[in-house]
Structure formats: C-alpha cells, structure tokens
C-alpha cells in the first residue's frame, strides 16, 4: 500500500468535527411584550377632596391672617409716626420721629420678606406631603388592580361658550377617551381620607 493510500484510509477512520461556522445558528424566539394596563387619575380633584390638604391650607390661611393683622398694625404705627413728624416743633423731636419711622419701616419690610419666604416654604411642604401620600396609595392601588402605568388627566367638557384658546387647550388633552374603570380617582381619594395622616397634621 502506498503512503498516500495509507493516510487516506487513516483519515477515513477519524471522526469528523464540525466547526462553529458549520453549525446552524439557532434563531431566538421573540420575547412577548409585557401586558400594559393604564389607569387615570385626576390629581386636581384628589387635592381638592383631600381632608389633609383642606385642613393644612386652612391652617396656613390662619397664619397668613395673623401676620397680615400684625403688618396692618405696624403700618398704622408708621402713619402715626409720620403725623407726629409733621407736627413736631423742635429739631430734636423731628429727628426722633424720623428714626422711629425708619425703624418701623425696616421692621415691616423684614417681616414682609420673611413671611413671604416662610409661607411659600410651608405651602410647598403641604403640596409635597399630600402628593407623597397620594403617590403611595396610587402605587398600592395600581398593583392591586393590575395597572402598569398611571397617567394624570383632567376630565373636560366642550361648551358652546368656550373661547378659541379654551377649545384648543381642551383639544390638546392627552386622554381622548377611556372607559370609566380606568379612572381610579375616587378610590385614591377614599383611601387617602381614610388614612391616619388625613386626620393628623403631617410633618413639615
């Protein structure tokens, strides 16, 4: 047997090995998209009906009224000092009234600035606190009902007397139509007002 015939016979006895290129590449099966279910919530109505929001905004209005009365008293005091300044006869009296007027004016401006800053901070804290409660309840309810997304919306009704601007605004609403069972507003309000924080002041 020749050498070439020997090697040919030997190669015939060896098992064949397929390379990676020779194997068929498996086709990945498409992954089905997760089921989506959308819920809607009228956030403006939730805040409007929230007992906690109502209570805390009323408390804030009370503090505003107190500061307003204090400022009115200071304004009246300043006017009285100005009248005294006009009636002052001696130079020393006029200087004293001028100092008093400037002092009251400075105190009034300081009070006004601090009041605006503090009240704005308190108002923001009220909105933030209620929103955090609403967010927690909304997540809880959505998971119970099988909703995967919750969108804000505001029900609108087109009326004959609407201005062009109002009409365009209503036409630009994100939600055009939805079945009633997608609206979880009333359920969120009910749970929100039944919670402990609805009857006790929240931390600010």
Task: Give descriptors for this structure.
single chain; 204 residues; mainly alpha; 4% strand
Polypeptide structure, described:
This protein is mainly alpha-helical. It has one domain (39-196). It has helices at 3-13, 43-49, 51-87, 91-145, 164-171, 185-194, and strands spanning 38-41, 149-152. It has a two-stranded parallel sheet. Helix 2 runs parallel beside helix 6 (185-194), helix 3 packs antiparallel against helix 4 (91-145) and helix 4 (91-145) packs across helix 6 (185-194). The radius of gyration is 37 Å and the shape is elongated.
Radius of gyration: 37 Å
Morphology: elongated
Order of helices and strands: HEHHHEHH
Terminus-to-terminus distance: 100 Å
Let me know the average pLDDT.
Answer: 84
Total helical segments = 6
Order of the strands making up the biggest sheet: 1-2
Biggest β-sheet, characterized? 2 strands, parallel
Q: What structural class is derived from the secondary structure elements?
A: mainly alpha
Show unreliable segments: 6-11
List the helices and strands and how they pair.
Blueprint: H1 3-13, E1 38-41, H2 43-49, H3 51-87, H4 91-145, E2 149-152, H5 164-171, H6 185-194
Parallel strand pairs: 1-2
Describe the structure in brief:
Helices cover 63% and strands 4% of the residues. With 204 residues, it is mostly helical. Helix 2 packs parallel to helix 6.
């Amino acid at each position: 047997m020749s050498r070439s015939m020997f090697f040919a016979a030997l190669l015939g006895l060896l098992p064949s090995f397929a390379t990676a290129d020779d194997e068929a590449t498996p086709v990945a099966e498409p992954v089905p998209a997760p089921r989506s279910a959308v819920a809607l919530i009228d956030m403006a109505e939730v805040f409007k009906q929230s007992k906690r929001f109502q209570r805390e905004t009323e408390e804030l209005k009370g503090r505003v009224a107190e500061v307003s009365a204090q400022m009115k008293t200071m304004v009246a005091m300043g006017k009285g000092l100005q009248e005294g300044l006009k009636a002052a006869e001696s130079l020393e009296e006029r200087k004293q009234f001028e100092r008093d007027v400037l002092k009251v004016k400075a105190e009034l401006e300081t009070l006004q600035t601090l009041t605006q800053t503090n009240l704005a901070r308190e108002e923001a804290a009220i909105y933030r606190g209620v929103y955090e409660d609403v967010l927690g309840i909304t997540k809880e309810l959505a998971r119970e009902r099988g909703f995967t997304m919750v969108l804000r919306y505001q029900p609108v009704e087109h009326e004959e007397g609407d201005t062009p601007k109002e009409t365009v605004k209503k036409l630009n609403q994100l939600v055009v139509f939805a079945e009633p069972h997608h609206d979880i507003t009333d359920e969120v309000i009910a749970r929100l007002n039944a919670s402990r924080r609805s009857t006790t002041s929240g931390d600010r």
